[in-house]
């Protein structure tokens, strides 16, 4: 995925990261000169995934190294952006841009290696854990927010593409991201960048300043201070072309597998017209209501034969945003009975990217004590503010996707003082008025401010003969404040309706006090903490034919906690008191735990051509379980041009705080009422709107008895260097997980309810309101409450490819060509069932729909970078490719829908229409975009950069199936929706 949609990176440019033997040469990209403080080949470092110090990244596990120079050479200025472009970062990654579209963990960015979601990727900071983001991804998965990493002091990012629970414990199932900071900075460094899209929007500004003094080599100490600031402006749907700027897809059509012409549609029934076309957003704003009002009984049941009408016919649609149309509506395709002001909410309010503002500072000190001891201390403060607008809140009669609990709101005929209600045109007849309305005079917005404080101290060195040691302590807190403006508070709304203080006929006449009373600002605070101490000892015991046998042992203790109280603490289900905000999801989690760990590692170079390594870690959790995770690795170098490597390991993911300590968390899925008996249900309701697809509320609560997910990881690969200028790598990976934590299968409760059978244990089913048009028919389900279980199994495998060529051309030109790609063979999840297990296959499809925000699992992700350096000038071009995928998913469109889109075609009805078939689009096309970057060193101390991103201005593929973006997939097409982008910068070093 792409954070803020503009920055790209190919990490295959450093095949050094995957070399398996000293004889396999490692070459650095020539795009930028090496810093003087960067480690050279003779310096020993601790590579991610091992406890031993070494001079390179030669391990049995594939490790990718991304240097700061490479990031700058390709126009990437944040760690989050770099990770979002990795081919191994797949389905389930969380870009900041998704915050503008309703993500649970709004304001954050997270990586998802191997498509196993954010909770299976471990993020480290200088080899130490970081505090979780206080909110959980999808209300279930805890993860580390990449947006709070100080980017200007990063020396390199190491990505271990293998399981690492044997070294780091929980959450390292898919791999590890280790952000490593610079050990010393001397003098002044600064940079300034400015960017803007070709359309003149989505502007960004960035400034970094760093000053350091002291020299570890000469004075044995170094201290540096860093500060950085970045602001990205919001980007709106109405600034982009069709079909990304609208909810109206009536001009589009497609053909399904059977050759039937169907209308493209995003699966939302609301807004389907009698001719089968689709117009999204059918709620009035300001002085209109959709359909406006019609006479009804006090409980909201419409008077038979009554018609909808504008509440203020004289005003019509005046005062509403551009694009609002006065249209007729009908019970069926031929009989109109009312009017409405129909809006295109996507065009009027849709946000592609939120406004983001990042500010941070770091103080770092290093001290050499004698010749064998090194100490450090670091303190970092970082804050990230994400803000975006929402469509104004609405009142509607049917439960659907967040507007629940506003059902049956009516305008009474008389006010609390006994006077006739001036807002009710039927008051004189003693009738209530059924109300559909959108509060256009009350702007709605969301803002999240994340503040992180991190301090770490440590000492490492050697003593005696061949003894090395390290000891580190880290403390980190993450504070998140979320402010939501313009959301009605139910009790206040009912009060304003009852006493007439809110003017529905002329909203412009409402005072700020009345608006603030109806929609008071909601401010919620969430916090997370982490404290960790760890020590390790390593020693070379004796010499084998291939080198010294090394042994390492270590131990760690950590405390971690989350306090995420609900922003809407009352139960969101129908409640007589209605003391809550009906449009704010009531999710939250509370919990803490202590973890004690012991671990060891052995590296045995049995022969010069054979190295065997192994290790294990035991973790004991205060929450009641423990786990041992072993690992073994082999590296075989039969000839100097070829290295063969492989690993086998066990891992685990501990249940998240959201899974064990979640407060009731409500989400929505689109379903057809009636379950297996939907046809009979529809007939009982005369095929009316009540029997069509709607938003079913699913409320999950924490389950303290959960066990950990367990995994088995296997990798096998080769590194070949047939010539001195060419290196090729290929690595197969296989990850299988058991005891996968999922919500209990709510479909069992659905079928039991509609069949009239007892509800299974562990489920609570709440019926919806009565269908006003069929009050005697069975009610559909409003909400189902249940917990989590360890139930499913998962397997994913694939192949990573890498190639690098480095050639000296005539006239002093250095050419470096690098490429990397990942191909996913399988991403299958197995579900238990009464009739035996079932398998859902996600590779090459939109799935897993339910856990990846419908970002999908494209089989291929690849990139190819070419860099030319001549003197003081460097030019780099990088192409990025994401393969197309099926616009269906087993967990969304039905089993086997990948092979036949016809299985995913459904028939919807608008009133008594004939039912035009509306298909989920069968195929989403591949996406390719190209970035060009240039750098020139004007003097020894000053340089300039110019970036042209998405140089061919390629649009994202049309994808009406995902809900992360409007008709495009932000996971893979964010660069396309932003379009051609220009950035200029200046950097200085003195």
Shape: globular
Remind me, CATH topology of the largest domain? Answer: Maltoporin, Chain A
- Poorly predicted runs are 1-42, 254-293, 329-337, 397-404, 572-577, 905-919
What radius of gyration results from the CA coordinates?
A: 30 Å
Helix and strand composition category: mainly beta
Helix content: under 10%
Per-chain topology:
Elements: E1 45-46, E2 53-54, E3 63-67, H1 68-73, H2 79-84, E4 121-125, E5 128-129, E6 154-160, H3 165-168, E7 175-181, E8 187-197, E9 204-213, E10 221-232, E11 235-236, E12 254-255, E13 261-264, E14 293-296, E15 325-330, E16 336-342, H4 345-349, E17 351-353, E18 355-369, E19 373-390, E20 394-395, E21 410-411, E22 432-435, E23 437-438, E24 444-463, E25 467-485, H5 490-499, H6 512-518, E26 522-544, E27 547-564, E28 588-607, E29 610-621, E30 626-639, E31 642-653, H7 657-660, E32 662-663, E33 665-671, H8 678-684, E34 694-700, E35 709-723, E36 726-743, H9 747-755, E37 764-767, E38 781-786, E39 788-809, E40 813-831, E41 838-841, E42 860-870, E43 873-882, E44 885-886, E45 906-907, E46 917-919, E47 923-924, E48 927-937, E49 942-949, H10 970-978, E50 981-989
Parallel strand pairs: 4-7, 13-46, 34-38
Antiparallel strand pairs: 1-2, 3-6, 4-5, 6-7, 8-9, 8-50, 9-10, 10-18, 11-17, 12-13, 14-22, 15-16, 18-19, 19-24, 20-23, 21-22, 24-25, 25-26, 26-27, 27-28, 28-29, 28-32, 29-30, 30-31, 31-35, 33-34, 35-36, 36-39, 37-38, 39-40, 40-41, 40-42, 42-43, 43-48, 44-47, 45-46, 48-49, 49-50
